[in-house]
Design a protein that fits this description.
431 residues; YycH; nine-stranded antiparallel β-sheet; YycH/YycI_2; single chain; eight-stranded mixed β-sheet; 26 strands; Regulatory protein YycH domain-containing protein
Length: 431
């Protein structure tokens, strides 16, 4: 009996020793080996964090139509924006019918009907939108990209209308079935009753009736090193060579891929000209591939949103816009920042651009400033684009312009005035 007990105790001690040795070698918990290959990628948590596709897909704004020509706008991070979007994501939309855009009086609907209009910038592929909203598979428009979703009710009708607008501009798809009632829409619209009032102009954009408070904020900046980006982007950084260009930028290449670094702008451009596999371009799959690529090669430092997924011939151009406090940070020539741009062919990333700089967590300073509204803003717009060009204004939204500081960056509130040709002008805040 004693011998058997000794054998059991000895066995337990040997197993315990082996387990302890395993922990020491592999440094559990954490799953990091004590010995790492010098050519291994930097793990994304040491740079930016990984992000799920669902967290990058949301509207850039919500326009609330309250009837009687009354409107307001909610932006990401607004309490009612989050509440409305959460409710809509839980509803089901099915049985779609295609209609021509020219068959509806949209100006009348906006002015007289109550509803919620969701804007998705230059568009989101339907198959991606299905990841965040309960849109039943439907061959009628699954291959489309949608830049607006509009829910509205008409007085006296027992059901609501739910429209999805194609980015091509010629068609709109109406959901024949939606588990929302006119009372549901009324409740959502009521959230906007005491919010800032906007006027729908003859040009089709919304003009705020009063000044808008925003926070001017000074933020400290962090910066990725070239070595970090090399180890993140090249399979074997040890075989890359450095080529210095005349303008001061540097190119690192492994004879296949290249990484160009603009030191003055702290901006990188990575290219991989390898021939992609044959097949058709699919914007939805390409966006998911772009998200996976960023997750694996640098990660996300801050809050981002899918801002575009433009398909042209055999490629997809994907853009992600950075936000602070619910408003986008504009990319400028003086301070390129706040965006990630990728080109893909059949799911393969052929180019990738981003800033080496990133916002750190704690602000250095904050100050409340006012963006002008009403007649003051109207006068500024006329001075900005000229009276004859007022009709060229597509939208006006709050945003931040980055400005370099000795110890970081200042995010200055502005009205971002987007013109029909895609260019952006700004109206500054009053401090």
């Amino acid at each position: 009996m004693k011998e058997r007990l000794k054998t059991i105790v000895l066995t337990v001690l040997v197993v315990s020793s082996l387990v302890q040795s395993f922990f020491l070698i592999y440094r559990l918990p954490g799953n990091d080996s004590a010995v790492q290959s010098p050519n291994a990628y930097i793990r994304t948590e040491e740079m930016g964090t990984e992000e799920k596709a669902e967290n990058l897909l949301y509207p850039d704004k919500m326009i609330v139509h309250m009837g009687e020509s009354k409107h307001t706008i909610f932006y990401p991070n607004d309490t009612f924006y989050n509440l409305i979007y959460t409710r809509l994501k839980g509803r089901t939309f099915d049985s779609f019918q295609r209609r021509m855009v020219t068959n509806m009086d949209w100006e009348k609907l906006r002015s007289e009907s109550q509803g919620i209009e969701l804007s998705f910038d230059s568009g989101v592929p339907v198959r991606l939108l299905q990841r965040v909203m309960q849109i039943r598979p439907d061959s009628t428009f699954e291959g489309e990209s949608i830049n607006r979703m509009w829910l509205y009710s008409v007085e006296g009708e027992p059901k609501i209308h739910v429209l999805f607008f194609s980015t091509k501009g010629d068609a709109v798809y109406e959901a024949g079935q939606a588990d929302l009632t006119p009372q549901d829409v009324q409740q959502l619209v009521d959230f906007g009753q005491n919010w800032m009032s906007y006027t729908l102009t003859d040009g089709g954009y919304y003009l705020p009736g009063t000044d808008m408070d925003m926070i001017r904020v000074d933020m400290p900046l962090g910066m990725y090193t070239i070595e970090q980006m090399q180890r993140s982007l090249f399979f074997d950084p040890s075989i890359t060579r450095n080529i210095r260009e005349r303008d001061g930028s540097q190119i690192y290449t492994d004879s296949k891929r290249s990484l160009q670094v603009d030191h003055a702008q702290s901006w990188i451009s990575y290219t991989d000209p390898a021939a992609p596999p044959s097949g058709e371009s699919n914007p939805g799959k390409d966006v998911l591939s772009a998200i996976d690529f960023v997750n694996q090669h640098g990660g996300w430092n801050g809050i981002f949103r899918l801002s575009r997924a433009d398909e042209s011939e055999d490629r997809t151009q994907v853009g992600f816009q950075q936000y602070y406090g619910g408003y986008p940070i504009l990319n400028t020539r003086a301070f390129p920042f706040g965006v990630m741009e990728l080109d893909l062919q059949q799911g393969t990333v052929t180019s990738y651009e981003r800033s080496l700089l990133y916002l750190q967590d704690e602000p250095l300073a904050k100050q409340v400033v006012k963006l002008p509204g009403g007649e003051k803003l109207a006068a500024s717009l006329e001075e900005l684009v000229g009276e004859a060009s007022m009709a060229s204004i597509a939208s006006i939204d709050p945003a931040y312009v980055p400005e370099s500081l000795d110890d970081g960056v200042r995010l200055k509130p502005v009205w971002a005035v987007r013109l029909e040709n895609g260019s952006i002008r700004t109206v500054a805040a009053v401090e």
